[in-house]
Specification:
The chain is α+β, with helices and mostly antiparallel strands and about 525 residues long. The chain folds into 2 domains: about 1-110 and about 195-295 and about 450-510, 3-Layer(bba) Sandwich (FAD/NAD(P)-binding domain); about 155-175 and about 295-445, no CATH class. Helices cover about 25% and strands about 20% of the residues. The strands form 6 sheets. Strands 1, 2, 8, 9, 10, 11 and 22 form a 7-stranded mixed β-sheet that branches. Strands 6, 14, 15, 16, 17, 20 and 21 form a 7-stranded antiparallel β-sheet that branches. β12 (about 275), α8 (about 280) and β13 (about 285-290) form a beta-alpha-beta unit. The protein starts with a strand and ends in an 11-residue tail after the last helix.
């Protein structure tokens, strides 16, 4: 194993939160011992071609990103070699690439509201409030360029959905999206990377860091956090061991280590480092915390599709804006349902239309069905269940296991939301020819937009790190990304992780990288 450089801070994970934290630490932190600019490294398991161009040009893009991207989403293979190059084997939704999930998410960016923070506090006793997060929220709102698409971009399907919702008495809201100078290529909302740099991502923070000396160590898979146990003192994180693309092992030392490997990756790295529940790690245990890998939470959806007698999405470009509402009015409570119709805003892919429940099985009927432009006649209303009564845990090999699920309550909510959706379709100006009434059950649902495996909270009895992201049990170790969010609430996907990262860098700089901070551990 080669001994490599010493850094003041090493950020492990170059994804949505990691780029934000690493970039701002390089820009704004100082070594409290010397007053010098920080030496910061960001270790990323994937490639760094996302930041090899000189910057971000919304609406235009740069040659490398434009060349590498052709409507690639997280379900597909990489552009150069066969196989799922950009997917971690244990988490298909986490991109293995600088920028992480932020480069492929759909662009929908729901900002946390009071209810989100209420349930964060209820879950783990974290002291977060909307007021404390205002600066972080504004940073993400500005840097991601969060707006709402104008009504002029609404398709016929979205207009019918919105009018029907209002007729049913619902408060219909335009979806907040992170786009600037968008060319409106329609498919970009389905977890695609953006060739024109129009979609808001965490890459600008990586550029901020590079302009202030950030060293990006790409194609480097972290193997473990180095944890030392000095006599008479608490355990201390002192560095990171990683494996390069050729399989060689390297070691970096650091005064502070920040883990930002996502909900699954963070817990797995802590396991490999000897930190977690005793019953799970056994003889590999170095430091015990029963909450590592536990409390995994997420939302889940039931999409109800319909087939219309005429086109509801355009044959040409355009039509990305859409609206949403909730089944229960505010204040939003547990097991609420977000109702939205993104799939009434853009065409289905021809291959998904060909295999839909509305398609004839084969032969001339199927051919005529496809020739009719079936992909423009299919729409989906999504029932996204939020704050579900369930709990999951992560195994050492990256699988999630069910701990508890209130199946009766979830099934009742699924049925209630589905009945409302059927009535919604019937209220539309153009009635569907067919509605797919196959209904999901709680037993088939798994969490998405996962959070909570190393959650922030009041103390080590209920959490892994503090409200300021400091690990309860290991000095000089901090944790952010989806793992530190106490649970998945009404604000989901990229936005809470990015906002959490924008709040994390502020707390980390204040506590560790300002004049007067502790100088313990610095070279």
């Amino acid at each position: 194993m080669a001994e490599n450089d010493y850094f003041d801070a090493v950020v492990v994970g170059g994804g949505t939160a990691g780029c934000i934290v690493a970039g701002r630490l390089a820009e704004r932190g100082i070594n409290p011992k010397t007053g010098d600019r920080l030496r910061v490294a960001m270790i990323e398991g994937g490639d760094d071609w996302t930041i090899r161009d000189p910057g971000i040009r919304p609406g235009y893009g740069y040659p490398i990103r434009r060349r590498m991207l052709t409507n690639i989403n997280y379900e597909e293979i990489g552009p150069e070699t066969p196989g799922p190059d950009y997917r971690w084997p244990w988490s298909g939704e986490n991109f293995k690439l600088v920028g992480g999930c932020s480069v492929h998410y759909g662009g929908n960016t729901y900002i946390p509201v009071d209810e989100d923070f209420y349930y964060y506090r209820e879950a783990s006793g974290v002291d977060w409030t909307l007021g404390k997060f205002e600066l972080a929220i504004e940073e993400i709102r500005e840097m991601y360029h969060i707006t709402s698409d104008p009504e002029g971009t609404w398709t016929k399907g979205i207009r019918m959905f919105t009018d029907a919702g209002r007729a049913l008495g619902f408060d219909m809201r335009p979806c907040p999206v992170a786009r600037r100078n968008c060319l409106d290529t329609r498919y970009c909302g389905d977890a695609h990377m953006c060739r024109q740099d129009s979609k808001g991502t965490s890459l600008p923070w990586a550029y901020i860091g590079l302009n202030h000396g950030l060293q990006v160590i790409a194609n480097a898979e972290a193997e473990k956090i180095l944890i030392e146990k000095p006599a008479g003192g608490p355990p201390v994180a002192t560095g990171v061991v990683y494996k390069d693309k050729a399989g060689a092992m390297h070691q970096v030392r650091a005064a502070r280590v920040i883990v930002a490997c996502g909900t699954t990756g963070t817990a797995l790295l802590l396991y490999k480092s000897g930190y977690g529940p005793r019953e799970l790690l056994g003889n590999d245990l170095i430091v015990e915390n029963k909450n590592v890998g536990q409390h995994l939470d997420g939302d889940s959806s039931n999409g109800i599709s319909a087939y219309f007698p005429e086109d509801i999405t355009p044959a040409t470009q355009g039509g990305t804006g859409y609206t949403w509402t909730t089944m229960k009015p505010r204040p939003w409570g547990e097991l609420n349902v977000q109702i939205w119709a993104k799939e009434l805003a853009r065409n289905h892919y021809p291959h998904t239309a060909a295999l839909s429940s509305f398609a004839p099985e084969f032969g001339w009927k199927h051919k005529e069905y496809m020739r009719s432009g079936a992909h423009r006649r299919i729409g989906v209303i999504v029932n996204r269940l939020q704050l579900l009564p369930w709990s999951w845990q992560l195994t050492r090999d990256g699988r999630i296991e069910k701990v508890s699920v209130d199946e009766k309550k979830i099934d009742a909510t699924l049925k209630e939301a589905a009945e409302l959706t059927y009535a919604w379709y019937e209220k539309m100006a153009v009635k569907p020819l067919q509605i797919d009434r196959n209904l999901r059950r709680a037993t088939t649902m798994r969490p998405g937009h996962d959070t909570g495996t190393a959650r922030a909270g009041a103390n080590r009895d209920v959490s892994v790190c503090s409200s300021d992201f400091d690990c309860h049990d290991i000095d000089h170790l901090m944790i952010t990304s989806g793992a530190s969010m106490p649970r998945t609430a009404f604000c989901h996907a990229a936005a809470p992780i990015a906002i959490g990262g924008a709040y994390a860098w502020r707390r980390i700089v204040a506590n560790h990288f300002t004049k007067g901070s502790s100088t313990k551990g610095y070279a």
